[in-house]
Specification:
Chain lengths: 173, 256
């Protein structure tokens, strides 16, 4: 499907609102390319309509904030996994090589299954687009909460890597 | 190398440490990375984060999504007059300027017909509007004859009614001081319930010379119209409730 928005010009206040990163953010939040595109287009369509009326909020990260709520709304209708305590594991030195073996979709699915606000925190953090203060602003979290969510996410993801990939953890390290 | 003992806040900062230098924008974060940067735990965390971020960068962008990335779509919206005018601040400033200009124009137009003594004449028109005939001493005579009365009774020289109004029959008259202690003579005549005022002409503050003006001049105040002329340092004003056309028939055509 080709979606066109002739003559729409969206005022993007800064490079902070990086459009390709916005799509990646939607993808990480939803773990599904089709849904990510829908949310991405809906967000930009809304922005274009507001821009045409001169009502685009002069707020930093408006696109990401809007996309976040759309993603959460979209995933509300999905089947929800029962909340279970995931295994955790210390980050090992072999983690980078394990991650290299993954497909981006696997990562996106893993992140999209996390409960919010952990899901948003991980998605924004790994976009490598924002510093921690900007993420705090976007997620409305406190530093301690963000720290805890990221640390937990790393440990859970490491445990999942060990479980998913044939390589065993090097227990001597 | 083990991670040095860190306070809770620093530990929190370390957990949020970005993988790229350019995202380290504040001093506390830089300090904590400098302190714990070489610990194996932090190195593992950074390597882990970099690998995940690299994987995120590898997320493919669908072609139909990529069209949004063209510069046309994300370029800043064009400046337009319409947009600027709709801006509430611009709108407010514009309205304020219009009001200011309107007031200035109104004052300018009002001053166009000003002449020496016009301010006093306007005040006297207000007095004319509020005067009741019982306040005046009843006098039944020709208006022209009152000059002698004003001179003899009140010592007012040259308080003469011009010849064009001299034959009007009077109902009453009085002499009073205005708020600047000037002696004002007021005459009420039967003709169209017209009132005459005689008052000292305006003088130059420095030289004391009378500020003259030729012929007749009109002033308006609260539905009252007055025609003012000056002679021998005294102004005469014929006033009535109405418009200029009501007074024009009484004024000689040489008026200016």
């Amino acid at each position: 499907m080709r979606v066109t928005f002739p003559f729409c010009k969206i005022s993007v206040s800064a490079s902070k609102q990086n459009i390709p990163q916005l799509y990646r953010f939607c993808f990480l939040m939803l773990g599904d390319a089709r849904k990510a595109q829908d949310v991405f287009h809906a967000t930009l369509r809304e922005a274009a309509a507001r821009a045409a009326q001169g009502e685009l909020p002069d707020e930093r990260f408006w696109l990401f904030r809007d996309a976040r709520w759309r993603c959460l709304e979209a995933s509300e209708t999905d089947l929800q996994a029962e909340p279970v305590g995931l295994d955790e594991h210390d980050i090992g030195p072999e983690a980078p090589s394990q991650i290299e073996q993954l497909d981006p979709t696997q990562l996106a699915i893993w992140i999209s299954c996390a409960p919010d606000p952990q899901r948003t925190a991980l998605a924004l953090f790994y976009l490598d687009e924002f510093d921690y203060r900007e993420i705090l602003n976007l997620t409305e979290l406190k530093l301690g909460e963000l720290s805890r969510l990221l640390e937990l996410g790393r440990r859970q993801f490491q445990a999942w890597l060990y479980a998913m990939l044939p390589q065993k953890p090097n227990l001597n390290v | 190398m083990k991670t040095p003992r860190l306070s809770r806040r620093r530990r929190d900062l370390l957990n949020c440490a970005p993988t790229s230098e350019e995202r380290v924008r504040d001093r506390p974060m830089r300090a904590v990375i400098f302190r714990a940067g070489k610990s194996s735990e932090f190195v593992n965390q950074q390597n882990f984060d970099r690998a995940v971020a690299e994987l995120v960068r590898a997320i493919p962008i669908p072609p139909e999504t990529a069209e949004w990335f063209s510069t046309d779509l994300i370029s800043p919206s064009k400046w337009t007059w319409k947009k600027t005018v709709r801006n509430p601040a611009v709108l407010a400033i514009g309205l304020a300027l219009i009001v200011i200009v309107g007031v200035l124009v109104f004052q300018f137009v009002a001053r166009l017909n000003d002449f020496p003594g016009s301010a006093t004449a306007r005040k006297l028109l207000a007095i004319a509007g509020s005067t009741r005939s019982v306040l005046l001493d009843p006098v039944n005579a020709d208006a022209g004859t009152l000059s002698d009365l004003f001179f003899m009774k009140h010592g007012l020289e040259h308080y003469d009614v011009p010849p064009e109004f001299a034959d009007f029959r009077t109902i009453g008259c009085r002499v009073f001081d205005d708020d600047e202690s000037r002696r004002i003579a007021q005459i009420w005549v039967a003709e169209k319930r017209m009132q005459f005022f005689l008052f000292p002409a305006e003088r130059d503050v420095k030289t004391g010379a009378v500020l003259k003006f030729p012929g007749w001049r009109y002033v308006h105040q609260e539905n009252w119209i007055g025609a003012v002329t000056q002679h021998n340092g005294v102004c005469f004003m014929a006033a009535l409730r109405g418009r200029e056309k009501d007074l024009t028939p009484y004024i000689p055509k040489t008026k200016q």
